[in-house]
Amino acid sequence: MTTVGAVLVWSDLGDLDRHDTGVGHPERSARLEAVRRGVADALGPDGIATDGVVRVAPRDATADEIARVHSTRYTWSLARLADDGGGDLDPDTPVSAGSYATAVLAAGAGLAVIDTLRASGRGAGFVAVRPPGHHARPGIGMGFCLLNNVAIAAAALADAGERVLVVDWDVHHGNGTQDAFWDDPRVAYASVHQSPLYPGTGLVHETGGPGAPGTTINVPLPAGATGEMYRRAVDDVLADAAAAFAPTWVLVSAGFDGHRDDPLAGHHLTAGDYGDLAGRIAALAPTDGRVVVFLEGGYDLAALRRSVAATVGRLTGTSTSDEAPSHGGPGADAVDAARVQHGRATGAG
Amino acid sequence: MTPTVPALRCLVVGIDGSDDAARALEWAIALARPTGARVVAVHALGLLARLGDTRVATGTHRDAITREFADRWCAALDRAGVPADRIAVDGPPAEVVLAVAHSESADLVVVGERGVGGTAAELGSTSRRVLAATTVPVLVVPAAPTTGPGPPP
Description:
The complex is a heterodimer of chains A (349) and B (153). Chain A is of the alpha/beta class. In chain A, 37% of the residues lie in helices and 15% in strands. In chain A, helix 1 (30-43) runs parallel beside helix 9 and helix 8 (271-282) runs parallel beside helix 9 (301-316). The relative contact order of chain A is 0.17. Chain B has one domain (10-141): HUPs (Rossmann fold, 3-Layer(aba) Sandwich). Chains A and B meet through helix 3 and strand 3 of A and loops of B.
């Protein structure tokens, strides 16, 4: 079991972000600036320039790397749509002329961070990219997502012989990631999310296909849930499952839209909760240098900044959040149901 | 041999607040009147929705969106007086329509050719995705009025 380290290996798109979602869309470029400020908050005024931070330039994911997750027909069609000036995949998911190039770069940023961590064996990765990815299914993007960044990274690691645990704490279920590894025993997928809510998947009985039974774990929590229920989900359900699965890498789909200030959902987490979760989930990795956090959702810019700061602060051990973790609220029954579903007797949480 | 046309007992129609969906609903009502079929209006709740000219998040405006769907987008059902239900489900539009068609044992699905999104031809509009994935007959109502006829009176 690893402890948090002092090195942050991070990559962001900077001014290479050309994914234009249009006026008023919550998934917007300003999110990345909020994330950068959050990282700076966590590391201190000069932190980003210190030896404790390794900046990794994003690179394009190759066609073969993307094809591990997405159909060639889909990626070809997405590229063509962007080339033609854009359009809508669905009512939520616009594509602009620069969207495909940005999505390919976002997917490659995660791969670049992993390459760096594999070489050094030290630090925690943070991939600050957009568009987010966890709703993107193998055959079609949806829900703001074009290419599934975390799934492309997990598939690359799996093909390299690794066992990968993907933990998804975005408030929405990551149906695309679940679909990608539904029947793949090399990658376990665990999600804590609000339900009912878009995309309507992630029910507790969704536990994996016949080739990978039990490697999909869903803890759907009702509206109003606090960070305490997320912590219980990790401690009471995911920890045992992770121990049984024995991952060699842990990837995190880190959406911050469960924050109490976020406009897209109804959970009541604080920035401090995300710091707590980051620490708990990093502890599921076997050693240092094997945890990578990927940005997914999070649409209130101030809350996003604070939540990223808390996450990075915990991963690097450099700072703690001013927002205390939250407690109470509904969801204990849902955590218990997930624990029972995954074979552990009910008991103290 | 003359093919047998099965009785229409249940029509599922996709509703998203667009003009196309309104036309699809007109067609569903027109078919329900002479057959006595029940119309099940379905709305897929996405991440975002439009209330009037304002884009809002479904997660925090769920009740208002559901009311808009039931009361305004489906107002023609009340005016027509046909047996009807309204169902709002979280998920992508095509999959929601298909799931409700299955659960309601629909005899016919009615969708607009284009809605408020999903217009990327290469990747398939909602209507194309429904057509590609169901064994239930599907009526696709064209995007805009043409010189052709409207729904039966």
